[in-house]
């Protein structure tokens, strides 16, 4: 029987790459999206065509609205019965210094990046007695740079939640985190943007998607790993070179 993964933000970018990767390994995929309905439907159709013996479904939820988040796992259960893997991938990444951060701005960052994962982790643990949770944080959590202040705070909180949940939900539910660095350029920028930033990290190059997928495989295949954080950042968390 195929296992099922729920991936938030699975219609595009890193979420889509993970969904494709897991589908190629025989997983059923619950594809969450918010505004990317067309991309989600097209991607779902592609997966159905490529893997006809697996199940693929799309689910809409605005992660900024807790009442919609609370409906997500029950909706997935209704269509797919069980969830073996929850990947909290979707994020909002918006710049603002502390001094420029309004309450509304902070609420949006915290709702999507922290509160939604909290609700989904809570509901997952209540609904299933075993499984794996993977939370996406950010290499920024080891710094105190404030150019993305609310975003960084939300990801720091998610990492603390990861450790707390790993302790409480173990041994049957494992909870780990992945911290990407220079993976994909922002949609409005090209690869040159990442190449310039990479000049100051230890590996001197962007990582692309492959390190993320390898880290996901490592978490899934190592059944003694919980409460851990894998930095997929080419050493960026160590600090910047001169």
TrEMBL record:
Gene3D superfamilies per the UniProt record, alphabetical: NAD(P)-binding Rossmann-like Domain
Keyword Oxidoreductase in annotation: yes
One Gene Ontology molecular-function label: oxidoreductase activity
InterPro entries documented for this protein: NAD(P)-bd_dom_sf, Sc_DH/Rdtase_CS, SDR_fam
Coiled coil segments of this chain: none
Keywords: Oxidoreductase
PANTHER family named in the record: OXIDOREDUCTASE, SHORT-CHAIN DEHYDROGENASE/REDUCTASE FAMILY (AFU_ORTHOLOGUE AFUA_5G02870) (PTHR43639), SHORT-CHAIN DEHYDROGENASE_REDUCTASE FAMILY PROTEIN (PTHR43639:SF1)
Protein name (record): FolM Alternative dihydrofolate reductase 1
């Amino acid at each position: 029987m195929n296992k099922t993964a729920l991936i938030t933000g699975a219609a595009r970018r890193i979420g889509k790459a993970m969904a494709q990767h897991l589908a190629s390994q025989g997983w059923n995929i619950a594809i969450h999206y918010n505004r990317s309905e067309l991309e989600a439907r097209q991607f779902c159709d592609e997966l159905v065509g490529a893997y006809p013996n697996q199940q693929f479904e799309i689910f809409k939820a605005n992660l900024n609205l807790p009442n919609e988040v609370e409906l997500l796992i029950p909706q997935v259960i209704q269509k797919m019965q069980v969830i073996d893997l929850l990947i909290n991938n979707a994020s909002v990444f918006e710049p603002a210094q502390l001094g420029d951060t309004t309450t509304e701005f902070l609420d949006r960052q915290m709702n999507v990046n922290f509160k939604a994962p909290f609700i989904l982790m809570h509901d997952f643990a209540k609904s299933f007695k075993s499984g794996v949770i993977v939370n996406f944080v950010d290499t920024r959590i080891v710094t105190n740079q404030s150019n993305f202040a609310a975003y960084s705070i939300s990801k720091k909180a998610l990492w603390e939640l990861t450790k707390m949940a790993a302790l409480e939900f173990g041994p049957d539910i494992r909870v780990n985190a992945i911290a990407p660095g220079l993976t994909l350029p922002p949609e409005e920028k090209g690869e040159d943007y990442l190449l310039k930033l990479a000049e100051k990290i230890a590996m001197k190059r962007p990582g692309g998607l492959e390190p993320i997928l390898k880290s996901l495989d490592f978490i899934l295949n190592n059944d003694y790993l919980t409460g851990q954080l894998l930095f997929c950042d080419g050493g960026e968390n160590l600090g910047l070179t001169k």
